[in-house]
Amino acid sequence: MIALKNIEKSYPIAGGRVFVLRQITLDIQRGEFVTVMGPSGAGKSTLLAILGMLDGAWTGEYRLLDTDVHKLDNKKRVALHKQHVGFVFQQYHLLDDLTVAENLDMPLSYRDIKKSERESIVADTLDRFGIVAKKDLYPTQLSGGQQQLVAVARALIHNPSLLLADEPTGNLHSAQGREIMELFKQLNARGTTIVQVTHSEENARYGNRIINLKDGWLVK
User: Contact at 8 Å (CB) between 97 and 138?
Assistant: First the structure.
């Protein structure tokens, strides 16, 4: 599903460049549940952003679902992301001027789905995540944990082929965190490919493979 070859990410500094990722070559099969671990500053979130096509300033080759991402312009990368990728951000990235229900509707609005059907999907998702009572509230009216639940719900609402999650339970209490990880496990069992970044050994155990990064390099 994913094939990376010699992916590198760097920034210019006085007298040279500083590398965030170095020579990342990696294959992830359809249906895998992969965990990316490593110390702070290892390049984990950067790798996830590249996989999600949210960062285009890198070199190397990236193939996703038989599409050469490195050959696409930004507009086509955005379209590919909207079609196939769900992303759970560490800092939520909810739209403050939209209600919870409207935030959930956003990924569905990119697809050819009738409004009545979208409303039904949003209602089912609100119920599934226990946030029906929050549907007309704005993100700023929610606690951090509630915002994270909405962010997870939004990432999953359109049944993405690839789910990317950056510390998905970091702002949830332990019971909520386990519920989210169990949900990820169920989704993976039904065929969703998942790549998560986490510092949690407990969360890592839900996956079937761990990839370690250190100073931008893959650690064998």
Answer: yes
Helix (H, G, I), strand (E, B) or coil at 160: coil
**Residue 161, phi-psi category: left (phi > 0), alpha (psi -120 to 50), beta (remainder):** alpha
On whether the CB atoms of residues 25 and 217 are closer than 8 A, the answer is no
For 7-34, letters b (16+ CB in 10 Å) and e give bebbeeeeeeeeebbbebebebeeebbb
- Mean pLDDT score, 118-141: 94
Amino acid at 6: N
Q: Which two tokens stand for residue 209?
A: 């493979």
Structural domains for the chain = 2-219 (3.40.50.300)
Q: At what angle do helices 100-109 and 115-128 cross, to 10 degrees?
A: 130
CB atoms within 10 A of CB 215: 14
Output the pLDDT for position 173: 83
> If residue 204 lies in a helix (H) or strand (E), which one and from where to where?
helix 201-204
Could you say which DSSP state residue 132 is in?
G
pLDDT band at residue 99 under the 50/70/90 scheme:
very high
* Residue-wise pLDDT tens digits, 150-159: 998 999 998 8
Average pLDDT, the chain: 92
Q: What is the pTM of this model?
A: 0.90
